[in-house]
Amino acid sequence: MKMVTAWWQSPIGLIRISGSAAGISAIAFARRGPSNAGQKPEELIPAVQQLEEYFRGERRAFTLRLAPAGTDFQKKVWSELGNIPFGATATYGGIAAVLRNPGAARAVGRANHLNPISIVIPCHRVIGAGSELRGYGGGLWRKRWLLEHERSSEPARIAAVEPGPPRKKKPRRCAR
Hints:
By secondary structure, this protein is α+β, with helices and mostly antiparallel strands. It contains six helices and five strands; from the N terminus they run E-E-E-H-H-E-H-H-E-H-H.
């Protein structure tokens, strides 16, 4: 199958998108692209459009066909990353526990590091156990930007502060 590449300038840097008719195989930040970086192969136009919508705050989930290359364990980790809700975070240890391998936090971190499809497979949503930002292939400043972008675009945040129906108060009992 013929592999094609597209280049797209995001708000946080140049992104290289690679794939074929089988699906997207890589989305990564790049330092520079070729002189014909504006041309987008037809197979990758949906990926560019969905990334544009994500960065405009209009898209919270991607519907692209993905074809990342990796081990079975890596693919399980990447699949689990897709279950982290938009605007939320998870820990390496938490993902290892969900995969029924609680001692594999470092292996999860390694799989996270090797994720070939940034943003769409949201490895930026994984943080350290103490809520600290840990490594990100695109740089910690990008990880921080992506997390803040998602939190500022999160509609559930607005819904959470709207008052709900009044709660009935239970009578207090006096302890004697």
